[in-house]
Design a protein that fits this description.
112 residues; rod-shaped
Amino acid sequence: MTYSPEHIEIAKEIMRVSKRLEKASKEIFGMADTKAEAEREYRKALAKRIMELRAQGLPATICSDVARGEVADLKFNRDLSDGKFKAAIESLGAIKVQASMMQTIHKRYDNL
């Protein structure tokens, strides 16, 4: 059986997409670690600051608001890492769709 140049190019593109999927999957694991670390750092700093403010005699009703304002940069990092992680998951889904489309086209060429 001989394959057309288009058929060969589709097979090559499937391999490229497959490699992108593999790389993206590995990167997502790293992003999950970063996301979890940012969450941990934020929560630890927030709890520590709330306790410090209470020890200084600040009314309990406003301690958490003040503390959240003071650790806002850590919250920003937490939210940013979460957003990047979610975007990476969406991107991985798009790559999967692309791979599926290429496989479908490749199968159609096989049936011609």
